[in-house]
Fold each of these.
Amino acid sequence: DEMKTNAAAQAASIIASYQSNYPADYKEQLEKVLIQMGYNGYDDLQQYLIDNAKRTEIVKQYASDHFDELKIRKISYILVKFSADSEKTEEPNEDEAARMKAVDDALAGGSEFADAARDHSEDSSTAPNGGYLGVVDVNTTTLDEAFLNAALALDEGEVSDWVYSESFGYFRIRNDASTKETLEAGTETTSETNEAGETEVTVGNGQSPYEELIGSYDTSL
């Protein structure tokens, strides 16, 4: 029932989007897409969304059941890039070493990893989010091999030594979560009654970590 309700809301949103983009023939445009995906046409939109939700739930359950085998990890990192026109060697040059030392000093001085990432990471796509990469596992193929191997070898809460990547530079990697309890924390909505008798609702991030994994880094599941 929940899937049906969600699918109906998603279908209405999709139809509204198509009506905005294709006011003259939005049904025909949706029909083409659904037929390409193996459905009969426009009237199967909600069924497609239900089927997709079922597949997602099955894969999420599989990932949870095979958690240790898949070595599922939530990962953040700090990147120090190669200096311009450097030789890109495992041994950093003076400029690279100075930037790496700034990271080390911040961490040694008590800075949280996320704060150090915001202040020092040279990856503009992840630094604003505290260096957060996402949820990965052994089937991930889109990441630098040296990076992934180092990330999967870390215990929960552990920060790696500097990891050399011939493609990007030097990484400090943090394993934010590698147990089910930690990984799943913060994804559910909870409610409590305060001293005034009012119900306070705490909303998690809304997305299952397994859904994040299969949506970004392990499409093989």
Note: Residues 200-205 have pLDDT under 50 and may be disordered.
Amino acid sequence: AGFTVEDGKIRFGLLAVKNVGRSLIESMVRERANGPFTSFVGFYNRLESNELNRRAVENLIRSGAMDCLGKSRKSMMLEIEIVSKAVEKEKRDSVEGQISFLDLEETGAADRYTDEMVENMGEYSQEEILKGEKESTGLYFSSHPLRAYSDFVERNGLPNVASVLSRGEELDGKTVTMLCEIESVRTKVTRNNETMAFVNIEDMSATMEMLVFPKVLTQYASVIRENNILVLTGRISMREEEEPKFLLSEARG
């Protein structure tokens, strides 16, 4: 459930996956002691159906936690309905000596059956995979949307967020241009009854806060939206005992 360190790396705690509760995690860990989960059908077969709510399973898939089961994320998402209904039917209609859909897991027939149901569906695009990871965990794991812009950043000599944060005092009052993704946007009405925005921007190195004052927000409101990737130009502002802030002046898609 929790975060742990292993061989100098962080093992991501499943409790941080959206809609995944502690009781489900504890059941998975207990059952995993009997051997690793090896198939999507087997995952359903080995856990109590009342713990496997659809949202939890969807987010385990989207986060990448179930990639070890040998199927594409898209296939597993499409199979949820098939497999969950088979589980429910087996619970209702199980007759001693009757071979159920789930009993076929040992021969691989159940997986072949679901494979036929979603034949040729392939995998999500890289963009969809990354979106699923971010929405289910708040982080990107398999890659990062900005990786595709590495050449652009290098060619234009753009600093990354981490370097700007570390050089805050040196850059105070200076204009900087960066390529960033909009992580979150929060608006606030000022005393003058105008709207400004507090925006978290990020790249592959770090996150920092960007302030968008009313006149600038009016000009760029259409692009200052979550998950947009933008070339941002603005001034660095330092205040004592605070992280540097980025004061936006221009945003380009």
Note: The chain has a mean pLDDT of 89.
Amino acid sequence: MSKTNIYEELDSCVRNLKLDFCSQELATIASDHHYTAEQLQAVADVFDYLSTKKHETVINTLLKMSRLPTKEPKTFDGYDFSRLHGDDIQALKSLPALSDINAGRNIAFVGPAGVGKTHLAEAYGRECCKQGMKTYFLKASELNDKFTIARKYGREAHTIQSLVKPTCLIIDEVGRCHFNEENTAMFFDLVDRRYEKEGPHTIIFTSNKQPNEWAEYFDGNDDLMCSLDRIFDRASIFDIKGESYRGRACTTYAVEAGATSAVTETQN
């Protein structure tokens, strides 16, 4: 902490820790007990440590609750932006600023398999967690199963509400499963509720299919069309083309198989 701003920074720590305490009280204690500058700094350092520790605990909790993969976690630093080219590359490189989520814009990463769509979605969600925003990741097939189970047990409202809460909701691999009419109606309810949500919020989609092809995977055309209207009313769509990233660490060895000649030694 800076000594010149020690009381201001202490107030920041206290607010983060949600303590019923303020810098004026510390100043009073310091005055009554004749604290030296070094003693006052030591007190401030303790508050700074506790505040930092709480922040790290919050981030770790958000990451655990997000369902983002923990094995080889995907980050923006780990994405090879140098492989991408085009007039709009700067828009992709600016994703770590989280401008879209703070502007209430949805995001879609569309393109063939292996170009890094899921990597970018997971990296965005991880960055949201680091900024203290609740994130939730699931495959489209998992979302479909959630809807089916919710309808079976009459928990539609509870399930949708749980998916409205996260600031960043990531739905991976749209187009890999089929939503029946009832589940498409729940999908619309989810999108509609999030569309009306106040404050920062975003749904991130990844798909091998262009949005105008999604109708093939959803019954209930009216509900889907209304969903798409709300999803892409305010959205950033990244149409990523190119060769697959996968297999870069794969090494191919060329060998031949065939009969071996036998050598027979004759002893005299």
Note: The two ends are 94 Å apart (CA to CA).
